[in-house]
Specification:
6-stranded antiparallel sheet; alpha/beta
């Protein structure tokens, strides 16, 4: 470890040293050392080794996932910064820089990966001890996105929910996705498609579901909501809030009449204004909208989407010029703004998040960024979920079964039923399972039967997963763990297609098209497979794995 010239470090990372940094650190890797952390978007790149050539900047982007300025190694070392960092890994060296936080290297955090992680969790991001919403673990989740996309409506939502129960699936978390609302910022049910939204909510509750509504911090710039909160001239114009403006991040460029105006941020649905969570007006207004939805309709929570660091950084649609916020100082950094959005959402327990910085140790449900319908995307699920554990987010949900790319599920698209089933098998024995594309529409009768068996398998393990979630809430440890974490120093660091749930269940899904068998690395101990056979590890075995089988192994106490 050594402190190095800030200018040299910045230049080495391909950046221009146009502003000062609070701290910088360079860490030389030890022989055979391997590291995990930073962001679960990089799961496939982990572990970082002396051969790694990698660069990221958590100050400007969270890469659509969960991030944390934390790294831990199989040699028992750990790196931490409370603030987002820029990182470059090359030539066996990890170079980090921070704008304002101290970067810490703990040389003796432990003897191995698990101990180094637990040191970091205990010391730097301890768990609150509060349990997340346990329904996420006791039953599948249901999301209307793939079936209804931008055409969410009362009739089809109720039919979708009923179809799941009619096919023997249990009720669980039910998410109504984007376009239930009149518009972005106009958080009212669109009455052209919802004749009785309260009645719909009552029916869903009567079926046993808890209902979440999709939500984002954007405001469409041609709506009454935008005109009220962007240009109100007296308290009455802004629904009684104490001062004009402050709701939306502003452009640094002159607007109409040569006065500041809200920044137009480009995102996947177009260009919109973005709420400024450093201002109490924005917080109070957004809170009012969500509280009204819960009070008037009985909404149970929200699927909080967007809020990416990149939108607040202005790296999209603003020619690299960060928008101006109410605080006008360093506390309104892009990462801080994104975190303020996430922290606002903490009030609404039982909600789901996709991205954010510094949520380690908090009882929040996280999901992976959308994946496409491909075998390569399927192979990313396990390493990305494992990586979530190393940024302190144990309650991680994979993307929707089969991926979140709705186009792949249209008639005539290259939909692959084998891929859908193998995806469901990955979901089945990981922390959470989310259904969106209706199996009863996209699969034939035989594949529907296999799918139902996969859900039944999930339900057999659900009580165990609920208990594991409770334990993780107290300990801060991942629910889903790689083999190196559980069995250190045995050469398992690069295994990315198996995982442990807790310390007694090993899962080895099939993720290659057409495969009818797979090799499984079994750690030391006595293991009972899903077909009842007993194996003694350490061993590498090959097991049959037709489409009807998800290989898993339970550790048997001697």
């Amino acid at each position: 470890m050594h402190k190095i010239s800030l200018t040299c470090l910045v230049m080495a990372m391909g950046m221009t040293p146009s502003f000062s940094f609070a701290d910088a650190l360079s860490v030389k890797m030890q022989p055979g050392e391997k590291w995990w952390g930073l962001c679960n978007a990089f799961g496939r790149e982990m572990p970082f080794t002396e051969k790694t050539d990698f660069k990221c900047d958590l100050r400007k982007d969270n890469y659509g996932h969960q991030s944390l300025s934390f790294l831990c190694s199989n040699k028992g070392r750990a790196i931490w910064c409370a603030e987002p960092v820029g990182v470059k890994i090359a030539d066996g060296e990890i170079a980090l820089e921070s704008d304002k936080g101290e970067i810490i290297l703990k040389e003796d955090a432990g003897r191995n990966l698990g101990e180094a992680y637990r040191y970091g969790s205990t010391t730097w991001f301890p768990p609150t001890g509060e349990e997340p919403e346990l329904l996420y673990f006791s039953a599948p989740q249901y999301n209307t996105w793939i079936e209804l996309t931008y055409h969410q409506n009362e009739k089809d939502i109720l039919a979708y929910a009923k179809s799941m129960l009619d096919h023997g699936l249990p009720p669980g978390i039910f998410m109504i996705d984007d376009t239930w609302q009149h518009g972005y910022g106009e958080w009212y049910f669109d009455m052209r498609r919802f004749s009785d939204p309260k009645g719909m909510m009552d029916k869903l509750h009567g079926m046993g579901f808890k209902v979440l509504l999709w939500m984002c911090p954007f405001v469409s710039m041609d709506t009454p909501a935008y005109r009220r909160i962007a240009f109100g001239k007296n308290p009455d114009d802004v629904n009684g809030y104490p001062a004009k403006g402050g709701f939306l991040v502003e452009s640094r460029k002159p607007g109409y009449g040569n006065v500041p105006s809200p920044a137009a941020i480009r995102w996947w649905n177009g260009a919109s204004a973005l709420l400024d969570f450093t201002h109490p007006n924005a917080v109070a207004w957004f809170d009012e909208q969500l509280e009204r939805l819960m009070k008037d309709y009985g909404v149970d929570g929200f699927k909080f989407d967007a809020g990416n660091v990149g939108y607040y950084a202005g790296c999209v649609g603003l020619e690299g010029d960060a928008p101006k916020t109410f605080t006008h100082d360093d506390s309104a950094s892009p990462t801080a703004q994104s975190a303020l959005y996430g922290n606002f959402a903490l009030k609404y327990k039982g909600s789901e998040y996709r991205n954010g910085f510094g949520f380690a140790g908090k009882p929040v449900i996280m999901r992976l960024h959308d994946k496409d319908h491909s075998w390569e995307a399927l192979r990313r699920l396990i390493p990305d979920m494992l990586a979530a554990g190393f940024v302190g987010c144990p309650f991680i949900c994979p993307d929707m079964i089969g991926g979140g790319d709705w186009i792949a599920f249209l008639p005539g698209s290259p939909f692959d039923p084998e891929l859908f089933i193998r995806s469901a098998q990955v979901h089945a024995l990981c922390p959470m399972m989310q259904i969106s594309a209706s199996p009863w529409r996209v699969l034939d009768a035989e594949h529907q039967r296999i799918f139902s068996e996969v859900v039944a398998l999930r339900q057999r393990f659900a009580p165990r997963f609920v208990e594991l979630a409770k334990e993780s809430a107290k300990s801060g440890e991942p629910m889903m763990r790689n083999l190196e974490y559980c069995f250190p120093g045995l050469g398992y660091a690069n295994i990315k297609d198996e995982f442990m749930m807790g310390d007694k269940l090993l899962v080895a899904p099939v993720m290659e098209k057409g495969a009818m068998s797979r090799k499984v690395v079994l750690p030391p101990g006595k293991w009972r497979s899903d077909d009842g056979q007993i194996y003694i590890g350490p061993a590498t075995i090959e097991v049959a794995a037709p489409l009807t089988r998800l290989p898993y192994f339970e550790r048997v106490e001697e």
